[in-house]
Amino acid sequence: MTGGDREELLREIERRDAEIARLRDLLLAKEAELGEALGRLREMEDVFRAMMGIAARVPGAMRVTAGGLRRLGSRRRERNGG
Amino acid sequence: MAEPRFSILTPTYDTPADVLAAMLESVRKQRFGDWELCLVDDCSPDPEVVRTLERAAAGDPRIRLQRREANGGIVAASNDALAMARGEFVALLDHDDELHPDALAHVDEALLREPRADYVYTDEDKIDRDGHHSGPFFKPDWSPERMRTQMYTCHLSVLRRSLVEEVGGFDPAFEGAQDWDLVLKVTERARAVAHVPRVLYHWRMLETSTASGEVAKPWAYEAGKRAVQAHCERIGLQAESERDVADFGVYHLRPRLREQPLVSIVIPTAGGRREVRFEDTVLVSHCVRSIVERSSYPNYEIVCVLDASAPPEVAGELEAIAGERLRLVPYDRPFNFSEKINAGAAASQGEHLVLLNDDVEVATPDWLERMAMYSSLDGIGAVGAKLVLQDGRLQHAGVRFEKGLPGHPFHGYRGDYRAYGNAVCVAQNCLAVTAACLMSRRELFEQVGGLDPAFPVNYNDADYCLKLHRLGQRSVYDPDLLMVHFESSSRSSEVEDWEKRLLQERWLPLTAVDPYSNPNLRHEMPRPTSPFAWRRRRLRLRRRRAKGQLV
Fold first, then answer.
1. What pLDDT does residue B528 have?
2. Mutate which of B276, B413, B532 to disrupt the A interface (most A C-beta within 10 Å)?
3. What is the pLDDT of residues A2-61, one digit of tens each?
4. Are B393 and A39 a contacting pair at CB < 8 A?
5. Which of B524, B523, B431 is nearest to B139 (CA)?
6. What count of Cα atoms within 13 Å lies in the side-chain half-sphere of residue B296?
7. pTM of the model
8. What is the 3-state secondary structure (H, E, C) of chain A?
9. B495 pLDDT band (50/70/90 cuts)?
10. Across chain A, how many H-helices and E-strands are there?
């Protein structure tokens, strides 16, 4: 290898190193963006789970309310002598 | 008239008639009747305010009214109300807010349970002009470190009157944050503080009240900063108070150390490798390089407890990076994190010990100053950091216990997540912090026997912090101390059943309910099932009373 070839090769390696560093920085930025999105997704999943928990309790709560209303109604009817 | 249990202090000034009437009605409706209401009108220009107050005072002997000759501001009026008070305790009620009918009854119950309590606070919510409730704030039990970065106890605050008078009442130097200053002063001397985890105070959102936002009273937040600063100076916390740039109710402490004692950073390592930022890396070398290159604290040593099986070049690499600061401790037994930490601590000389995983990278230059700031304070046993994963998501923001087992709240959430009640971005106490990055004073570490080798992989940190807790030493999470954690790079993150059992056997019932969370929260999210649970509890109590099981 001649001196000129060697210098050209070193310049090429330098260019490639710089390109690798640039691509790595890009990857890091993308990873941080992805992390942000995944983090938001995780929050939303937790909120969704909590909402589903409430929704699952609605029928039970309605049954309890309906039972209470029925009892109240029957007591009122008893008081009214009906 | 005999001394009442509670004196409610309420300075009034130009209060809207409907709001004032609602406030008075909420006091009159108290289920617990042993109270007096000390009203001080600060020279309201609207004659209707005075007429309403006079009518109220004429209608109930427990309501006492005093009128100031000239307008003196909230502090002067509050001090006048304090001078009128005859009760054992004073409760602070703003002129436009409301009390829950059971407020004083529950506070009295808390005081009967803990007679040494000199300060009691409750949960609160907000209420609008039309009486609609919103934004419940479910608070943790007493957390002195949180109180320095957020006035989280706020309403309802009930303080022992003798102690309030001892500290000089409301200080005009902190007008706008006089309540925060008073609570800080009282709690510095309090024998005990009690928390009632029920919404018993309704904070009215009016255009002129702090509840509506910063623009209403900008000076109050500056006064808050000064109140925290004065408190730090009184208790010897070497710190400077700063306001948060994004949230007006949040403050930060910046270390201002007068001394820089030797800190020993103990890092157990097997010299493992993994990809860090898309580059194959020796983790411990990366960790030590980040310490050496980024730390601003001058007086530290690094103690690496190195497995005999570690690649031979690792020791040389570490010496090249850390030079004379490095101390290598060989370890040739089967893996046991606790034993390795204890061996490193024994070989170190620092006044403070930092337990650090080898898969951690320093991100905050003054991390050691921050840790030493807290660790030097009496009553603090362990200091922990905010850890984020390589992609910036949250890994650790303090440890929470549920049913006796520790967990990391908000794990995997985005890194700038502030959480319910700003829980991620204010300093606060936890039952435990992770040993991935933990500072303790050496004397305390030795007093509790270091980490327990019975926990070779998991839960050794939780067990250690709970041992400190038993000694009355608090653990602190500092949100401004950021580290990157390439989590569980070398070992499986699975927790074995026997580890869970061992921790529960040791620490239940202490860890059954985390005092730094709230019974109405699950994973720090408001848990809408709680009102139902509460009703169920009350129904059960009523049924037991009816059956004669309860007096």
1. 37
2. B413
3. 788 999 999 999 999 999 999 999 999 999 999 999 999 999 998 888 888 888 888 888
4. yes
5. B524
6. 12
7. 0.88
8. CCHHHHHHHHHHHHHHHHHHHHHHHHHHHHHHHHHHHHHHHHHHHHHHHHHHHHHHHHHHHHHHHHHHHHHHHHHHHHHCCC
9. confident
10. 1, 0
Q: Where are the alpha helices (DSSP H) in B261-360?
A: 283-294, 313-322, 337-346
What is the rounded CA–CA span in Å between residue B36 and residue B141?
Answer: 27
State how far residue B246 is from chain A, nearest Cα, in angstroms: 19
Chain B residues within 8 Å of chain A (Cβ atoms): 277-279, 389-394, 412-415, 417, 522-523, 525, 527-529, 532
Locate B67 and state its tokens. 């009128």
Q: Amino acid identity, residue B138?
A: F
Question: What residue has token string 């509506």?
Answer: B212
Asked whether the beta carbons of B161 and B155 are under 8 A apart, the reply is no
Residue B467: its H or E element: helix B460-470
Segment B501-535, tens digit of pLDDT: 999 999 999 999 899 999 888 754 444 333 333 44
- CA–CA separation, B134 and B136 (whole Å): 6
Query: Hey, CA dihedral for B328, B329, B334, B337, is it positive or negative?
Result: negative
Look at the block and give the residue holding tokens 């569980």.
B488
**First CA to last CA distance, chain A:** 113
Tell me if residue B323 falls in helix, strand or coil: helix
